[in-house]
Amino acid sequence: MVGEKKVAPVSFRPTVDERRVLDELGAEGVTASDALRHGLRLLVQERWLERARADMLAHRDENLNDEPDAW
Q1: Per-residue pLDDT tens for 45-66?
Q2: How far apart are CA 27 and CA 21, in angstroms?
Q3: How far is the CA of 36 from the CAs of 17, 23, 33, 66, in angstroms?
Q4: How many whole angstroms separate alpha carbon 63 and alpha carbon 69?
Q5: Neighbours of 35 (CB within 10 A)
Q6: Domain boundaries, the chain
Q7: What is the pTM of this model?
Q8: pLDDT score at 70
Q9: CA-CA to 67 of 20 to 30 Å: which in 13, 24, 30, 50?
Q10: Long-range contacts for 48-51 (Cβ within 8 Å, ≥24 apart)?
């Protein structure tokens, strides 16, 4: 594709259980690359949720009703 950078491949040595999961997904038509991409996106989402929860806990005593209106 035009303007798209080439990315170096990443090697992965799955455990027996991980290989079984990849084989099961492969039987459903999911490639190993797609499975890993999906897993990485889930990890990013999980980290975002962890940070959001930490922020929520850090500000749990904050009451916006005590703040002056911005308008």
Answers
A1: 999 999 999 999 999 998 888 8
A2: 10
A3: 14, 13, 5, 46
A4: 13
A5: 17
A6: 16-59
A7: 0.70
A8: 81
A9: 50
A10: none
